[in-house]
Amino acid sequence: MLEPSHNNELPAIPGKRYFTIGEVAELCAVKAHVLRYWEQEFPQLAPVKRRGNRRYYQRSDVLTIRQIRSLLYDQGYTIGGAKQKLAGQEQKEDASQYKQLIRQMITELEEVLDVLSHPLNPK
Fold first, then answer.
1. What total number of domains does the chain contain?
2. Which H or E run contains 20?
């Protein structure tokens, strides 16, 4: 995410479900046209579009935008480099989720095996 030193520069994200493009522009300190451009460049950004093609961003979108902003403006990545960095992070998150799911399945299977190997005593 953002470097700890940059957290104070951006305003806190309110506890809303959806944000307009103007609100997100203020929360992330970028202009609206930059957000529209980043939507084209980063597949991770896909705000909900409603009536009149209005964009509504969720909290996760705002966090992703802040991460992109940090990569581009603070850490000096190019658009291509930022794409690769974000894609690599997604793969790591997916791998850790799969590992967690496999551990959970193993635990459940061991519990089933324990139940099957120790049948209930009839009364």
1. 1
2. strand 19-20
- pTM given for the model: 0.66
Instruction: List all residues 6 or more positions away from 59 whose beta carbon is below 8 Å from its beta carbon.
Output: 13, 16, 17, 19
Each residue's pLDDT, cut to its tens digit, for the chain (123 residues) gives 444 445 457 888 888 899 999 999 999 999 999 999 999 999 989 899 988 889 999 999 999 999 999 999 999 999 999 988 888 876 666 677 777 888 888 888 888 888 888 877 655
Residue 45: both structure tokens together: 């950004």
Give the list of residues 6+ apart from residue 111 with CB closer than 8 angstroms, or none: none
In a domain, residue 89? The reply is yes
Whichever domain contains 69, its CATH number is: 1.10.1660.10
